[in-house]
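Fig. S4 source data, part A: sequence.
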Amino acid sequence: VLVIGAGPIGIATIAMGLLKGAHFIALDTNDKRLQYVQSKYPGVDVLKLNEHIEDDIKNLLKGDLPTIVID
């Protein structure tokens, strides 16, 4: 599951989804938010938005794209 935005709503989405065993990627432009997600949810992958984000996601998911995207 790709969560776009690691603010309060994105973090709550991740927290609830982890209870169901989902794998998450948090995407944001804010380094502090991504660091917070990494510190509180070590199993969640984090990516900073950049011009090559599609390639970064595919590399993380071994060539695939996420089946669920939450914005």
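Fig. S4 source data, part B ends here. The helical segments are 8-19, 31-40, 53-60.
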